[in-house]
């Protein structure tokens, strides 16, 4: 689904950027140029960022359990 209509950025691209290390809105703006024009996508980008970071944290914790 398109999240940023101004730049044509999809939720998949945002999730991919997070998986590649984006951990802030500043990182997403640098990588995908989202929330720089009209700003309407900012809330959804932040929501996807928080979701991705929580998933990454949960995955990291699960990996620690497996390694122990």
TrEMBL record:
Look up keyword Amino-acid biosynthesis and say if it applies: no
| Record keywords, A-Z | 2Fe-2S, Electron transport, Iron, Iron-sulfur, Metal-binding, Transport
For the BFD-like [2Fe-2S]-binding domain, which residue ranges apply?
2-51
In Swiss-Prot or TrEMBL terms, this protein is called Bacterioferritin-associated ferredoxin
Please give the cofactor(s) recorded in the UniProt entry for this protein.
[2Fe-2S] cluster
What organism, scientifically named, is this protein from? Answer: Halopseudomonas xinjiangensis
What molecular function terms (GO) are annotated for this protein? 2 iron, 2 sulfur cluster binding; metal ion binding
Which family does the record claim for this protein? Belongs to the Bfd family.
- Is Iron included in the keywords of this UniProt record? yes
């Amino acid at each position: 689904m398109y999240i940023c209509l101004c730049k044509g950025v999809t939720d998949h691209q945002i999730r991919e950027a997070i998986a590649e290390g984006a951990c802030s809105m500043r990182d997403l703006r640098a990588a995908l140029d989202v929330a720089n024009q009209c700003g309407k996508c900012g809330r959804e980008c932040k929501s996807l960022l928080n979701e991705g970071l929580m998933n990454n944290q949960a995955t990291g914790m699960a990996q620690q359990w497996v390694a122990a």
